[in-house]
Known about the structure:
This protein is of the alpha/beta class.
Amino acid sequence: MPKVITAQEAVRQYIHNGSTVAFGGFVGAMVPEEIKMAIQEQYLNAGTPKALTIIYAAGQGDSSGKGLNHLGEEGLVERIIGGHWGLVPRLQKLALENKCAAYNYPQGVISHMFRDIAAGKPGVITHVGLKTFADPRLEGGMINEKARQAGPLVELIEIGGREWLFYKAIPIDVAVVRATYADTKGNCTFQKEGVTAETLAICQAAKNSGGKVIVQVEHVVEYGALDTRLVRLPGIYVDAVVEAAPENHTQTFGTQYNPAYSGEIRVPVSSLKPMPLDQRKIVARRAAMELVPNAITNLGIGMPEGIAAIAAEEGLEGMVLTTEAGTIGGIPASGKDFGVTLNPDCILDQPAQFDFYDGGGLDVAFLGLAQADQKGNINVSRFGPKIAGCGGFINITQNAKKVIYCGTFTAGGLKVTVADGALKILQEGSSKKFIKQVEQITFSGDYAIEKGQPVLYITERAVFALTPEGVTLKEVAPGVDLQRDILDQMDFVPIIRNVKIMDMRIFRDEPMGLTLS
């Protein structure tokens, strides 16, 4: 029988100095916020627990003080192994100041790691991460000097004449997760959650490591009160249940509770207002031209989000949107709700979604374009002192049948206008995105060429394709001067041949009349 105790009691009883603690959650969804707050409180008041190793797959935070930011106290953590760092500035600070050993590995790899720890396997063997910064021939996923002194947690191996990466398993002392309801025997349901994340795998990993499982819930109910069909976490894995205050158990960091996120109801979706004809719409329109019927699609956050709006404006049907958090169908949310989906058709466990992604199930993926270089490499994970982390980017981009990067040509103050069907640059961005060598390789152009993977780079003024000869200019916007507006704003010269004018319909106010073909 699990104990029903407070978060403070759970921390004191189960999380000890030097413990390895795995946390479940995705951005602000399925996050055990009250327990994380209690860890911080206990450390500040009593100096324990300290020197923790923390492991998490998806970013869990709000870019301020919530989620894993509660653990950003010097001395509280000794080692951090995370998939995405962009939402946890307090952990970033510890890593950048070399006050803990810090690692960044692909989100899908870490979610699979929990499952492999549970199964007693030595670790994850996968192609995901080859020739990126996770590869030990490059950075080995090590963020700072303390990590480099300790060494990588990944090895390059060969099986059957092929290269693979072997990410080493780490026993889990404590799992900290959440659910909706728990009965008095610890059986837990997830019916109000927008994602299920890797909760089951984390709990199995902890139990089979000889560790403990702490579950935060909305309410504890009597044994027998729960519908067996809704139980997603059996009580045999659970050691402690914490009934949280409502303010610490929101569905996401942006929404207290929306039943349309958890699939309990479906709500009418109002027609999206047409996007203004600016650089974002230009990029989204050109990217939408790459959609195919019934495409299983992943849209990254930021610029690619506009593709869904264009699809709605053009009346395109048959595109199935998915998220790495595990949702299929519906309309993915953004901001502090990112990860959950309005009106999802299905919510899978995150490791299962990455099984599908890693095996090549995505027809097309649209991701952001932060930095690109002459080899076609992309960096979205580290920029000087800022650690964004890769999240699911590597899993998605290495394995989708086609990858399209979307972004403005330059960054920092770019202003454009469209007049008479032509693009005019009013103010150039202060930072170049197309540079000789990216700061960190989150996507490898060489790896894509070896696989024969089609790759496009779409901007408001030019479209490039990755070819065996290098990055090749394919299209330019009407009204753009090739030398002044493109070549002078790049740090390398692309291959130039058979350059076409971008579809003129992109630069007109009325709908384009797109069809999926």
